[in-house]
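Spend some time on the protein that follows and explain the fold to me:
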Amino acid sequence: MSLITRSLGRARALITHSGFPYRSAPTPNGVAPAPQRSRLGSDFDTAWARRYPARLTRAALVEGIMRPTMTILADPRVYGQDRLEQLDGPVIFAANHHSHADTPLMLTTIPDPWRHRMVVGAAADYFFGTRIGGTIAALTIGAIPIERTKVGRRSADMTRELIDDGWSLLIFPEGGRSPDGWGQPFRGGAAYLAIRCDVPVVPIHIQGTGRILRKGRILPQPSSTTVTFGDPLVAHDGENARRFAERLEAAVAALADEATTDWWQARKRAHAGTSPDLTGPQAGAWRRIWALGKNDRQTQTRRRRWPNF
């Protein structure tokens, strides 16, 4: 018995001393330790979330929970889906961003065949700052980490591999939610990825989600919403990401005009380059809030009219 006890003691001491299997081998003296690779942010691994069990779970969440919830909270009216009929293969969907409700609304509004083979470009520093948060985002919405300010090589390479594999991408080019209900200037990430991956971009305008769950609010409240899909855009020969991003922002601004007025007048202003700017009036805070409230009232009272030829 004492022999067995001594043997167990030696084995325990050996395991404790070596650290197996709880830590890697120590670095020898005189050798610089290898840099620790971060597993958070843009380096967060999301490949597991695109395997069949995770995809099945996500589809059940989208169809069983998100869709009924969005029907109750958002009561979405969807326009422009006929503009997607000629598309074939993966695309990039680029929408304005007012609320955390935007993502579930898009996941339940974007039609097949893209809906269940789509990843969401999410801010690497916000959604993937912790293991728990990143895991939840990857599982529930199919999120992948994208840098806010400038798309890094790792994110760009991963996105290209996914698009080559048949996945589409949903991204919010503003880089974050609106702080006051008006839009923010588009950054070049969506345009850069579209040029690099050689796929079309579908502009989308979302109206009304800021009333459901605006930035800073915890509890949502129901409100009607409008989702308008635009004509797909492709980069011109020699067009850089900055100019393509400007053209993409103008397309979303034209869709916003279409949602708040009527199709014909919005098309004429878009052709003339006079669509109202997404970012609102360059004025004081009170003036911007007043103008936003007026815009919301117009959205709720105006009805779509046929063109007056």
